[in-house]
């Protein structure tokens, strides 16, 4: 799990270095189909996909100072570990590639700073 967090943090930091600073963020409504695709893709990454519980799934449109626009989907997921116990809600984020959602990573319960930095609108 720490390896996933390290990769996710590295990806966010490297992407932020490549993109212009964000001038504006706003929430974008999601369709039920989009939410279902996010839940399917994230649950697939869990040890027990059928145990997935989701909250605070949202899509954020970010307008950068250079005028480019990027979209990020964020949320929190809880799932069972190998022992059958829930681990606690962890953050995730990702992007849509056409109609398919591609998670960038699923964090750990102690990486809320990363969620706050990338997912607040």
What's the layout of helices and strands?
Blueprint: H1 2-18, E1 22-28, H2 32-44, E2 53-64, E3 69-78, E4 90-97, E5 100-106, H3 112-119
Antiparallel strand pairs: 1-2, 2-3, 3-4, 4-5
Could you walk me through the main structural features you see in this protein, from its secondary elements to its overall organization?
The chain is of the alpha+beta class and 121 residues long. The chain has one domain. The protein is built from 3 helices and 5 strands; from the N terminus they run H-E-H-E-E-E-E-H. The protein has helices spanning 2-18, 32-44, 112-119, and strands spanning 22-28, 53-64, 69-78, 90-97, 100-106. Strands 1-2-3-4-5 form a 5-stranded antiparallel β-sheet, with helices on both faces. The two termini are 27 Å apart. The relative contact order is 0.22. The mean pLDDT is 82.
- Arithmetic mean of pLDDT: 82
Query: How would you spell out the order of helices and strands?
Result: HEHEEEEH
Instruction: Kindly provide the radius of gyration, computed on alpha-carbon positions and rounded to a whole number of angstroms.
Output: 14 Å
What's the helix count? 3
The largest sheet, given as strand count, sense and whether it forms a barrel, is: 5 strands, antiparallel
Overall domain count = 1
Q: Describe the oligomeric state of these chains in a short phrase.
A: single chain
The portion of residues forming beta strands comes to 35-45%
Q: Kindly report how far apart the N and C termini lie.
A: 27 Å
* Share in helix: 25-40%
Main structural class: alpha+beta
Query: What is the topology, as strand order, of the major beta sheet?
Result: 1-2-3-4-5
- Any idea what the shape is? globular
Number of strands: 5
State the low-pLDDT regions, or none. Answer: none
